[in-house]
């Protein structure tokens, strides 16, 4: 760069930055997803699970989990030269849900991660984004050893509207997660375009 311009003579591109939430139940892989794609070292606010929290922290199905997010995870990924996503992972436990209103302020859309072994754990996130008309995509995180179900079966179990995208993903895999995030952006843009058409007709 020379005096704020690239060596090829093109002015620098000022990227559009978009905020995406990553939500879902306790232990579903939100921290893993953010870490898999973030181009910066993710900010994590994890604390060890304690005996005091055992009565309220349901670890059934995730007995090997020893930490929990108490505020948020934060990461960043550049999808294109002119498009940067800021990722905010929400806490999964009910006692930290008061954080969701703060984190959802200004969000373009959200990923709701689901685990087919504990599908009911993502109901609260689905309801939250539906009530607030925040566009979201459901990503079914394929854990090793978990049963595989057709997408339509999962869609029916979650009672999703027909226009809500549902995709299978691996929260550990960068390319898989990138596809989910691209899906969120495309879905949010399509909903915004539909709203504009309704207003102008």
From TrEMBL:
Transmembrane segments: none annotated. Keywords: GTP-binding, Hydrolase, Nucleotide-binding. SUPFAM superfamilies: P-loop containing nucleoside triphosphate hydrolases. The keyword Transmembrane helix does not apply. Belongs to the GPN-loop GTPase family. This is ATP/GTP-binding protein. It comes from Streptomyces thinghirensis. The lineage of its organism: Bacteria, Bacillati, Actinomycetota, Actinomycetes, Kitasatosporales.
């Amino acid at each position: 760069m020379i005096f704020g311009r690239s060596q090829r003579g093109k002015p620098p591109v000022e990227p559009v930055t978009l905020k995406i939430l990553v939500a879902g139940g306790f232990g579903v892989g939100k921290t893993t997803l953010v870490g898999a794609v973030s181009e910066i070292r993710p900010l994590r606010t994890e604390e060890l699970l304690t005996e005091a929290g055992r009565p309220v922290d349901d670890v059934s199905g995730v007995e090997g989990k020893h930490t929990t997010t108490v505020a948020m995870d934060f990461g960043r990924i550049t999808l294109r030269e002119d498009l940067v996503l800021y990722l905010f992972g929400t806490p999964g436990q009910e006692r930290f849900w008061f954080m969701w209103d703060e984190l959802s302020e200004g969000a373009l859309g959200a990923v709701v991660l689901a685990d087919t072994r504990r599908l009911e754990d993502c109901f609260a996130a689905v309801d939250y984004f539906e009530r607030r008309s925040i566009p979201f995509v459901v990503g079914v995180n394929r854990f090793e050893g978990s049963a595989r179900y057709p997408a339509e079966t999962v869609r029916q179990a979650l009672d999703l509207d027909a226009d809500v995208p549902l995709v299978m993903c691996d929260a550990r895999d960068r390319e898989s997660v990138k596809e989910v995030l691209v899906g969120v952006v495309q879905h949010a843009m399509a909903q915004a375009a539909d709203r504009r058409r309704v207003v102008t007709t």
